[in-house]
């Protein structure tokens, strides 16, 4: 938000932290693949990719939970020309 404010081109910047509302979705994504393996079980070439993705999603979950990563949104409107 500070970077956008420093340009003086935008109006008020609103920010929101989405870590807390979305934290459960990281592990849920992994469990969806485990409970419904139709997308990868018959494709042996995808096994390594799925394992790597599950590992990365778990690491991301831990990083968000510990505050090492942040996830959010910002919104601003362009200032009217004078």
Which terms summarize this structure?
about 80 residues, mainly alpha, two-stranded antiparallel ribbon, 3 helices, about 50% helix, elongated
Compact overview of the structure:
This protein is mostly helical. It has three helices and two strands; from the N terminus they run αβααβ.
How would you describe what is shown here?
Strands 1-2 form a two-stranded antiparallel sheet. The protein is built from three helices and two strands, in the order αβααβ. It has helices spanning 2-7, 19-35, 47-66; strands at 14-17, 72-75. The protein is elongated and about 60 Å long. It has 82 residues and is mainly alpha-helical. α2 (19-35) runs antiparallel to α3. Helices cover 52% and strands 10% of the residues.
């Amino acid at each position: 938000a500070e970077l956008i404010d420093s340009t003086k081109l935008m109006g008020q910047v609103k920010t929101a932290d989405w870590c807390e509302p979305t934290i459960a979705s990281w592990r849920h994504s992994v469990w969806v693949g485990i409970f419904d393996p139709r997308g990868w079980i018959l494709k042996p070439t995808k096994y390594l990719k799925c394992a790597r993705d599950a590992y990365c999603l778990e690491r991301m979950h831990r990083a968000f939970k510990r505050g090492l990563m942040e996830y959010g949104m910002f919104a601003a409107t362009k200032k009217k020309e004078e």
